[in-house]
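Help!! Second protein's tokens look totally different from the first
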Amino acid sequence: MINRDKPRIGILGAGQLALMLAQASKTLDVAIVCAGQPGDCAEQVATVMPVDLDDAAEVGAFAAQVDLVTIESENIHADVLGGLHLYPNARAVAIAQDRLLEKRFFHECGIGTAPFAAVDSLDDLNNAMALTGLPAILKTRRMGYDGKGQVRLRRPEDAASAWAEVGGVPCILEGMVSFEAEVSLIAARGRTGKIVFYPLIENHHRDGILRISIAPFVDTTLQHEAESYLVNLLERLEYVGVLAVELFVVNGKLLANEMAPRVHNSGHWTIEGSETSQFENHLRAIAGMELGSTQSRPTVMLNCIGTMPMEEETAAFPGLFRHDYGKEARPGRKVGHLTFPATERKAIAEWQHRLHADL
């Protein structure tokens, strides 16, 4: 049953991000209900109502039972979100869920990116390669995550097979950049317009999947540059909630890769590493509460991909924090994460090896 004595926050989606949002709500005076399917992760700690997230009528009926709505994935079509009491707003979601709109918006905000071009046909792809150069990555405009919907092109002869592999759907071709590091910045903006920032995070990916996040990435100049970018994005979008932006460090400057209008995998370390986690601050922001302190400690997060280690294995490491999402094991699937204080260098190195995340 939904607790009707507290503000009711509905989450569209009931996966691991909804699970961690619901866990964070336990310290706040709010009730969480998720729109998903039986057996979804969040069912462990929250009410999950069966809702088809592609059906505007079902989503609208769900939203009518709560006080406000948020999302755990930007892949819910913006057309379904119209008219809802939604944080972040549907415009922000619509931009973030379309790579072409997202890149154009970055440029409107004066934020640099890798070279890119719209691709709607094989002819477009052949022309785009001349603009972006090679190597480049062909990405579907929508629904790509964790390396899905992406094909790398190294030679002009790769165009036809790449176009066939993505299924001939609207795409964007991005030129590849030589970067010194991949980083992300997470911010929360409240209803009053107040913004708080977490420290920059250094991220390591393999096969398009985040494997390791290390906080903080210490560079005062880049921290200020990234914060100025996010202030611009947040204010132009009239954004409320947590926003994450992934960036490349190129020649000592930042280029934007993509943004996520939600809590983000690279911020999972904040549960143990910050005074207020990204999950709690997202709920605080959308509920109109005061934002919490983002004072943080050096922390490392390792994703568990495919399978979760046995509890007896992790129990032997007292500095380790274990987060099991309760998902069925599957190759390439994020099933949990481990968090360590950054001082636990030997343990971190050992678990990198155990999780096949060493880079």
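Here's the second one for comparison:
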Amino acid sequence: MEYFSDQQRGKREAFREDISDQVWRGILSHINALIDNGAFGESFPEICIDGPVVFGSCKSAFSDACRAEIPRLPEDWDIDKPDTLDLLDLIQFCFKNISKPSRHDYHDYFKHYHLTFNRQEGQETFLGQINQIFERNGIVFRLQSDGSIIRTLPPEFNQLLDASKTGNERGFDDLLNDAKAKIIRPDPRVRKEGLERLWDAWECLKTLEEGNGKKEQITKLLDKAASSQEFRGLLEVEAKALTEIGNKYRIRHFEQGKIEISDPRQIDYLFFRMLSMINLLLKARSGTP
């Protein structure tokens, strides 16, 4: 369902990576309602004692399995809000185990219905409900149809990711694609790995042109991307600055004395600064406008 306010004001910009207490309480209430209506009964069945048929979800089995797969989840996770990454794991756990329950065969003695299940429909509905909560609260995360969770990016960043197409250079392609896949992950540690891969891709890109050594190869590549002598000078300065960042900060080199980068905002800044440069040079190599 699309809310009237979204029609009038447009979708809320997604910029938050923290999940507030209010949002957590809403997600928790939704999960508890799904437990109560039997939506997890296919994976964690409550069995009718009159026969091997399911009439609901076994909350204790659900909770025990959940804590086993997400060991950092608080013991009283329905009271204490989990860490954001653990909360996202909980959402994925629910997605993996949810089904749409359908009632049939009312059991008059025990006053309950027996249930049948459709996993695909249950997952599709759950995905839509969780993503609507995220979207309406300006949260950047989105549950995907394969059960993964990604981080949404501003449109201009998405355009840059889409525009940075590789050119059948096997080692370079692998590094670039891995970097792009990691930067949209919720875990900042994985995004940091994406930054490392992108800097490795940068060093690899310098060697793709014909030439006698890396210096001559990168010179040819920068020449291709320059539309004027002035812009060629700007590219030279930027190429040296990016290489120096990789050497000075703990991106490609991890020995003592390197400067640590851990702030997610800094990771994004450096990643998309480098990706802009790589994208420009890739287009120059391929002759793409």
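Reply: Different proteins will give different token patterns, so don't panic. The first helix runs from residue 4 to 9.
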